[in-house]
Amino acid sequence: MVNTHRITIGGLARDLPIVPVDPEIAIAFLKLYGDLPLVDAATDELAARLDPSTEVIVGPETGGILLAHKLAEKTGRPYAVVRKRVRPNMTSPLTVPVQTIGTATAQQLVLGDDDAAVIRGRAVAVVDEVVSSGGTLVALGRLMHEAGAHVVQTLAVATEGDRRLDVVALCHLPVFPRAGAAARP
C-alpha cells in the first residue's frame, strides 16, 4: 500500500503518493500533466486570485508552462515561458543561474528574445506547479528584473516544506521524514 497525502483544489480531491526524494525525506508528488480536471480546477482557482494589475503571465519550464498557458487562455492575457536551456531560435537570450533543492548542480533559466519583448516594461505574475525552496523564484525575480519586467505576484498550485507568505498557493504540501517521525510543516 502506497502512503498518500490528500489535497483538495476547487472541490476536487486527489491522493498524492508520498515518494522518497533522498535518504532522509519524502514528498507528496503533485503531477498535473494528464489530470485535466485538476488542471482546470487549479486554473479556475488561480484565475480568481490573480492580481488585477497583471499584464503578462510567466511560467517556468516545466510545470509552469501548462499553468501559464491555461491561465492566459482563461484570463485573456499574454504569457511568456522561461526555459531551462537556450533554444535554437534564441539569438540574444537572457540567462541567470539557478540552484534548486531538486538539482544537484547549478542550472540556468533562459528567457528568449520574443518572450523578453512580451514582458519588457510590464507587470507580470509568475505561476508554477510547486514552490519548494524558493531558489527558482529568486532566479526568476532576477531574470524578470533583467528583462525590464516587474513581478507583482507569484502563484502556485502548492507550496512545499516551509509555508510561504509571498506565494499565493491553493494548497500546502508537507515534507515527510523517512524515519517515520511526524511531517515537517
Write the layout of secondary structure elements.
Elements: E1 4-9, E2 12-20, E3 25-28, H1 36-49, E4 56-60, H2 63-75, E5 79-82, E6 94-98, E7 107-111, H3 113-119, E8 123-131, H4 135-146, E9 150-160, E10 168-173, E11 175-177
Helix pairs in contact: 1-2
Quote the distance from N terminus to C terminus: 24 Å
Share of helix among residues? 10-25%
* CATH architecture assignment: 3-Layer(aba) Sandwich
State the CATH topology: Rossmann fold
> In this structure, how is the largest beta sheet organized?
5 strands, parallel
| Helical segment count | 4
**Main CATH class:** Alpha Beta
Which radius of gyration do the C-alpha atoms yield?
A: 17 Å
Shape: globular
The beta-strand count equals 11
Please state roughly what percent of the residues sit in beta strands, choosing from under 5%, 5-15%, 15-25%, 25-35%, 35-45% or over 45%.
Answer: 35-45%
Instruction: Assign the structural class, choosing from mainly alpha, mainly beta, alpha/beta, alpha+beta, or little secondary structure.
Output: alpha/beta
Lateral arrangement of strands in the main beta sheet: 5-4-8-9-10
Order of helices and strands: EEEHEHEEEHEHEEE
Low-confidence stretches: none
Number of structural domains: 1
Arithmetic mean of pLDDT = 90
Keywords: Glycosyltransferase, Transferase
GO molecular function, one term: adenine phosphoribosyltransferase activity
Protein name: Adenine phosphoribosyltransferase
EC number: 2.4.2.7
